[in-house]
Specification:
This protein has 89 residues and is α+β, with helices and mostly antiparallel strands. The chain has one domain. Helices cover 10% and strands 24% of the residues. It is built from one helix and five strands; from the N terminus they run βαββββ. The protein has a five-stranded antiparallel sheet with strand order 4-1-2-3-5. The chain is globular and about 30 Å long. The relative contact order is 0.31. The chain binds zinc ion. Zinc ion binds next to loops.
Length: 89
């Protein structure tokens, strides 16, 4: 399944009780947010990015840890099968 980086989310505030979107991801998923979740990428994760499914009736927004080079508005990519993106709405 392909995922897409959502445009214009840089100003979206982290919910109360979380230090960052990476912290939000770790607490909700119970998984480490240290490494980028794009398939075959081994870079450190820099941000909890807002993503959504491509060509899906599910229009929910999700948070997933991405490295700087993968966190670009509009980019599409495959995620690791165990990436467990966390729904934000
Ligand atoms: Zn990456």
């Amino acid at each position: 399944m392909k995922w897409k980086n959502i445009n214009g989310t840089a100003d979206r505030k982290v919910p109360n009780g979380y230090k960052s979107w990476l912290d939000f991801y770790e607490q909700k998923s119970g998984k480490s947010a240290k490494v980028c979740k794009v398939k075959y990428c081994t870079s450190n994760a820099d941000d909890g990015a807002h993503v959504k499914k491509v060509n899906s009736i599910d229009n929910s927004w999700y948070i997933v840890p991405l490295c700087r080079s993968h966190n670009h508005d509009g980019d599409e990519f495959e995620l690791n099968s165990d990436s467990d993106p966390v729904s934000v709405r």
